[in-house]
Amino acid sequence: QVQLVESGGGLVQAGGSLRLSCVVSGFTLDYYTIGWFRQAPGKEREGVSCIRGSDYRTWYADSVKGRFTISRDNRKNTVYLQLDNLKPEDTAVYYCARESQTLGSQCPRDMDYWGKGTQVTVSS
């Protein structure tokens, strides 16, 4: 069955870094776009970054451009999100998700399977 499992969250001071991992199983990662999302307390979930399966093209939300970097290693069935220069407003639960269509390009829309999330807390 399809599974996505996030890890790597934690507590870090402002200006610090974390690397999140999303390990997938139950499908061939090569053929799918994967996205990272986050949800802060009292706020709606928002798309953070996506990486396409077809050509590794990336997308970033304006709020994280220049600070976050998405990458993937299909041999390890893993998608990463490097978080640098973290700010208190980055505090949230971070989720990874799979786009529903193979070789799709709709991310951050049209996602079908989601992980359970990993908490990132940035102190000021």
List keywords for this structure.
four-stranded antiparallel sheet; seven-stranded mixed sheet; 11 strands; 124 residues; mainly beta; single chain; 0% helix
SSE topology sketch:
Layout lengths: L2 E5 L2 E4 L4 E8 L8 E6 L6 E6 L6 E3 L7 E6 L4 E6 L8 E8 L11 E4 L3 E6 L1
Parallel strand pairs: 2-11
Antiparallel strand pairs: 1-3, 3-8, 4-5, 4-9, 5-6, 7-8, 9-10, 9-11
Number of helices: 0
- Cα Rg: 13 Å
Which H/E pattern describes the elements?
EEEEEEEEEEE
In what range is the share of β-strand residues? over 45%
Q: How does the major sheet shape up?
A: 7 strands, mixed
Which ranges are low-confidence, i.e. pLDDT below 50, for 5 or more consecutive residues?
Answer: none
Judging from the principal axes of the Cα atoms, what is the shape? globular
* Ends apart, CA distance between termini: 40 Å
Q: Your description of this structure?
A:
This protein is mostly beta strands and 124 residues long. It has strands spanning 3-7, 10-13, 18-25, 34-39, 46-51, 58-60, 68-73, 78-83, 92-99, 111-114, 118-123. Helix content is 0%, strand content 50%. The strands form two sheets. Strands 2, 4, 5, 6, 9, 10 and 11 form a seven-stranded mixed β-sheet that branches. The mean pLDDT is 97.
